[in-house]
Structures
1.
Amino acid sequence: MEKKQKNNLVPEEALVKILARLSLKYIARFRSVCKEWKSIIDSDFFRDLYESLKSSSSVSWSIMNTRNKRVSVEIVGHHGCERWGLTNSLGSYMHHIPETKVRNNSVLSCTDGIVLLYTETVEGELMYHVGNPLLRQWVRIPLPPHLSAFDVVRLQENRHFSDNGLVTKMEKGIVVGYKVVWMLASYPASKELTFMIYSSETGLWITKKVRCLRALLWSRLGYSVPLNGILHWLAASGCSLDADYVVSYDFYKGCDDDLDCNIIPFPGIQRFERNQRFKRTITTSAGSVVYCNVFNDSGGRTIRVWRLVSTKDHPKSWKLSWKLNTNSSLIGFGADYFPVVMHPLNSDIIYLWSRNKNSLVLLNLRTHKFSLHKEVPDEEENKSMDGCNMRFNGCKAYMDLIYPIFVNDILGGFHNLYFSQYVLPRWLNPLPQLSS
């Protein structure tokens, strides 16, 4: 009886009001105090109340390096945002400490606050983990039963193999399941792909062969863009070395024909196919896949941003959201720049790198206002447009490393993806439990 009285010192109604005004960092801690508090925090009522009070609050996120292991995986971090209240950038959480010493530790993919991590121990053991870094929850993913560790190493050396696919299943804004996806093309140019898929709901791997309506060059499987259970990656048709299509597959719903991948042509690709000297990327923003390019147009540089609205093989699958000539609209912007990512939550804001200024450019496409941010010593921080603290970690070094490749890609017609985003969810998203 005495124990029950102690637990009820704070009435539940008052406790809910107090918790709802805290940042998620503290709510995550209080969730582990006792079963009663966990039950309150996990309830739909509390989550809806919290969202009503914090609907306009900013969220921590990072720009990730996908290409070079010599610099930090997180090149720009946004922290100090109201919803999570983190004092450090997300890169400081992006690791799992195994029982043995590590030779290699790589972040393969991030989506909905969940991370796919690859680790090699000094003894040569290969390990894959899926986890929620902030809640320090990690689950080791077994290798496919038909593959040995030696087989996996051989696959990793294959240019047409990728082990970095990660998609999630969401219900009411909460991750309720995830799938790890490995992709393999049998030939450099092929109509078929093989998926090896691990599901948290079954704890098993399955192998699935899918086809495309036309043969494509699969030299860009090394990085995919995940969104809403769908993976998107770049591919080229047989008549072009450059990426002229986005290929997608929904790993929870399948496609129009469950055995077919969706093939979506880039907008305006026919217009520029003879002289594709423009800089581009695909990213995500405000719940959509977004395509951005910078093109030399009539003596000026024009930024165009499209949103993916359909998965059909048709140019109208993309809707033009923004078109801005920076030469006429912006002064002091610099002439040599390329797109990095869109802001993941605000589709008005694009991030670019200016070679002239050696700075990250935050540009509001609606108001034409922009700010320049240089990499500064660790103890100093920048402020982003949404009020978060920005911390750079090897950003300029990474931009300098990829710039020669990026320029050669423009001149030689071989675009690729160099950046990804890690965005914290708007709720705690505990890691789904593996099915027994």
2.
Amino acid sequence: MTTPDNTMAWQPTSYRKESLLFCSPVIQKLEGPRATWAGYSTMAHDLAEIRFEKVDHLYGKHLIVATADLNPYMYVHHDENGTIDSADGIVNEMILWLAQRYHFTFHYVESSDGYFGAFVNESWNGMVGMAVRKEIDLIATQLTTTYARSKVIDFTTSFSKDPMGAIIPAPKEDDFMAAIVKPFQPGVWALIMISMFSATLVTFTFMKLIHKYMPDYYDGGISNLHFWENFMYYFGIISSQAGRTMPSVGPLGHATRLVAATWCLTAVVFIYLYSGCLTSFITIPKLRPLIESLDDLATSVDLELTILKNSVFESMILEATSGTYKALGDSLRNKPQNRLPKDFLEPEIFLKHALIGRFAMVDQKSFLEYVLNLAFKTSGKCDITLMKQEVVTSLDSMAVQKNSIYLAQIDQGFQTMAALGLQNYWEKRFLKIPKCEENLEKGVAKPRLTLANLSGAFLFLLVGIVFFSWLYFVKFPFKREDQMVRF
């Protein structure tokens, strides 16, 4: 039993047991509707008188505390000999506060293999193994609570709820080369072309009929009798370059104007929709991630799963027998090099591997956000990002030896920290939201258009110039030869 207003815990130290006899009436059911008191039965109950007294197991003690460098919860700094010289972070602040409140001293140590703790080859490794062998008094890091671990160590009250996530290459902007055709889907473009040819065919047919059967009413000129001249009229409207008028003389002439007017009204809708969508595509980047979930990762041909060896999530997917987790586990078994060693707890090493661009790297979300900030600070660019789906949410705690006498006071200290708002204060101090994430969610309008934004338009212009130049030089010799023959 603990009390939050005290630096010492309460525990039972003695009890006295005695028996108490009392009588309780027993109802005997008789024949008929009547029931009478038939007698009493005596029952013996044990009462315990429990006495409590204050205890302080931590006072004056020196604790051996195992930890790991897991930014931003724990920053570990070493001296020339590789010994932990100093530390910082949320977990370190919690340990310092506990030491000051309960008057104990401590020093940090690290596990020789660098792992948190997994059951491998019939024994526990990492910091959990150190606690099982009673080499340490406390594990002070962001230790994920699992059932298997709880059977060999005792977890403290959880102090964080940190989901696991994955770092993936940042989505690239859309290819602006194709920007001029992206406002409409291929089916829409096809319908626009079909409608242009249909309207051209109708007006071309009407012009032919007027010219043939009512020549006195026709004054549209010979050019209107050509199919492609009619087609260029409609093309000029939709490209906002119209320079011709549709003649309307005689009874059938009004029909051509009605067809042209219908097309013009439809073209207005096309033009404004196209202009608005094109502006959006060019000025606001559309960033689509390579994957958004574990299901996408399991079937991805662009990215490979990588994860810290002997971690909780690695155990989950390697033990899975079906579904997405099994597929991910199979990928690790096929490529064991993607099971990362302890060196990858160093943010710089982790970041270097992430920037290769071929991996989805799973770890605690707080650590991944620290890596994202480090990447932006290093290069000023957002080359990596977080996968949209969180992998799994876990409760993180510290831990002590099984049945440790220190557990009650440490839990009491955690409850007091929460009541005083200290944990929230430390989280705001050390946990920083990545600067790139907000931009990726909302998109950022560009103040100026660059050549890359308009590359599609210039490419289209270049293709047009080259094509019509080629067409001119192909036709020019024939025209010149024809003129010489006439001369």
3.
Amino acid sequence: MCEGVLSRYNAKIPPTMSCNCAIVAFNERAVIWDYVSRFSKINWNHHSGNIMDDELMNVEGIKDEPMEDDDDDDGDSDFEDIDEDGNDEGQPGSSNETSKKVKKLKKKRAYLPGMQMKEDETLVCDESAYITLHTFTTSAPCLSFDIIPDSLGPNRSKFPLTSYGVAGTQAQRSHANSLIVMKMANVYKTQPKSSDDELSSDESEEEDNLDNDNEEQLTKKPELTVALVPHHGCVNRLRFKFFNEKPLAATWSELGSVSIWDLTKPLSVLDDYKLLQEYIKTKEKPKPVFTFKGHRSEGFALDWSPTMAGVLATGDSTKFIHVWKPEQSTWLVDQRPFTGHTDSVEDIQWSPSEANVFASCSVDKSIRIWDVRTKPNKANMLTKENAHESDINVIHWNPKDPFIASGGDDCALRIWDLRNFTGGSVAEFKNHHKGPICSVEWSPHESTVLASAGEDDQIAIWDLAMERDPEETTEEEVELPAQLMFVHQGQQDIKEVHWHPQIPGVLISTSATGFNVFKPANV
């Protein structure tokens, strides 16, 4: 896989945020995980869709002791000494007195999903593949979260970044769960680690001149400010929406109830340290403004309508869907469920452009389109049976074009054209993910770009506009789809990934090992 010998990377686990702590800091270098396993960069030529081999330098050798030369028969080491004129040292034309030694690394290879790794090999993050990359952990892992839109403006690109969000925990004890309302601030660009290679004297001088700048940069640590809201039961899924200027979060509890929470107070204290301290001191416990217990079991499917203010749809594990409509200060939930699925409803997505229309997917392997203006038992307008070979876990409706993306237990990612919904998928990627797909989301800024996350501990970013040049060939061990732009790893048991709606190219993901905030260099 690479010519150097790779060994263990002794990583430190980032500090955990305790429930009574209000402000914690990110790790300034996001490569500090409880294990290191991150594919870093596939840099694509956007004209041909082929991998640029010169950019695939992502796997580094790191040993617990100084590296030794390989015991090759020819005696070659991992480095070749050359002088500044490009001549081999000790060969005719070289000058040992005046030449400056530099280290020339043999070409490294990027790890590609599906490659076989040796027992003594591991993956090391190439930070140069990211514009920004940070990680943080919470008191308990979060199955679901959502990004809270803010008033800082759209299409932001200037660093440092600020973002707001809300997540729901999955604590071991039911009464120990919380909604975590959070503010991520002071998020700077990631500064790649300096090379371990020996520097020349000139290079050392240049590094010395940059010491002050580097020290100043390292003091700019991102901060996470949180306000907790007690939640009874693990949060299976959470979705956020402003309604009548109020910040609302809808949550699916493992106990079988769905609640709506007003986050006005916990959200307001994040920008005022004194108010935050008072919030913590008084141990405020906001209550849900509405709770529905009419589902016959717990569930995961939940989505706010983007076209009808305050309208919500929820689906449970017994196959039923209920639609909520706001009325004054409460919600009316039709007790007659929307019927059509024959097994657990896993996800729901409202149409971004057509009011009254939503889509759902199920363990019964079907994707269905519904119209809420019709009676619940007749509202199923379109059905794609056997859309996947097994359970369909997630769907997402393209915000700009008539496409739906779906991911299932068959490890396949499929794209459906609503103009020919009952036909076959218009795109399918079934050999990349090696585990069930648990999250999929279209980019809000690029209509052909989407992200998918799977139980194989990777997040893939795709651009459906990419095509491979038929005349181009690749010698890579694993053949990759032309549409694959980037693969992000380093988390265990990934649950959800979301694009930030106001910061193009930035994604946030949650997993059993914490959150990642990142922006790939090529997105």
4.
Amino acid sequence: MIIQKLLTLTIFGTLCFIFLWTFWSENPKNEKQLVLDVSFPTSDIQQPEPETVKSTTEILKNKSTNDDKEIKNEPEKNPPSISNKLSTVYDINGNPKEYINSRYYANYLNILRQQHHQMLSILLDKADLALKNNSVYSVTLKPQLAPSNDPHDYMSLARYFWPNPEKQNGLPYIGRDGYVNPEIETVKDYSLLRKLFKDIENLGFAYYFTRNDSYVEKAVYRIQEWFVNPETRMNPNLYYASFIKGQELGRKTGVLDMHPIYRMLQSIPIMRSSRKWNLLTERKLKDWISTYYQWLETNSLGRGEKASKNNHGTYYDVQAIYLLSYMDREEEARKYSREALINRVNKGILATGQQPHETRRPTSWFYSIFNLQALFLLAERSQYFGFDGWNYVGPKGQSIKKAVDYLLPFALSNGKGWPFLNIKEFEVNSYVRLLELAYVIWPDDNYLEALIILRPKAKLEQALEYRNADWEDNYLCVWSLMTNKQLWTCVE
């Protein structure tokens, strides 16, 4: 236990060491100052955009020049030299030994504590809410049944489908891609399923940090309620997911509803050490998962989703890998993760980094980031199984890094020059989270400089709860990635 704690502290120290090297600006006029103080003027967020698309380097250079003109006595924004943070002593043989000087080391300890306690506070708040929530999570609660008339059949309504104005009864509904029909909220199976996965994830991680068995007890209860209890359980299929009113079955795209199951499956192993973990419940859950995965492999809806070229296919792969791994089919998961990563990079990314199957959508910016999140999950799983998917390069030069780089200048310019239809905003919070991870994976200084500009806007989006964004930093996610663990709460 002592060794484990020391290892954890060392990992935290490494993370904050990198953080401080990146963002601490030295102030020789005030040697006593230990507070990290980087100012972000409003012009960084709302600066007038250029008329043409510029490279990331040009945008960052222009940002720096404009800031110099507008802001006086501003701390340097570019990451300072590492050498400024090191001091030197000499051993008995006269050899130099460099170390982080006392000023930066003290600040690193301060930030370490702040970041860790903020993360833990937010996590425990979420877990406590899940613990106290006594509402029922069940597919049997919906006011309208699927065509099967079985209340245990999961059903969600197709997001972008609306009543047909040319039909008196509006049936069957017709598609308007990019425009969400609020009627989807009348069937709660989708939102309850997402809430279930997030609750179990938060309860599991809260147990990891606190060893409070109450969190595990609640997680087991939720698993029983959704997957085991004969009165409230969901049937192990998605026949009526993404259902279009006026049709007889759901659509292949409805398989996407289940993709966040990885949140639950990655938290279960860390709860098994609790005395409140229920082995019988887990055996029944595995039976459910096994039956569901067989349905995915054999039903036309599942097979059709797997064959999809866009984000639907990518998230199918993520879901399948986690399911296989949870069922202890590790070699299949290993093979699947490598083949899926190569396939999605080769067919889903161009040599420029554009994701053509996402940019053809009316909400092209959102879907470009959404699929990139799935690619990050795929790369993490492939790395876990021994294949470096992060640095895989396709036959035409395609790579995940190129997909990150392609979006960067448009994120910096608030979408100016984006050459595709985009009927929604150019939000950056989700992209900034990926950009932070990207720097850990590929230490590109452009990412750091871009983060200094983009992070204030991302935090504003969090504060305004744009797209239900949570107010939190990426601390746990970055730490997890650096220690070769799962991505945990990194992506949606």
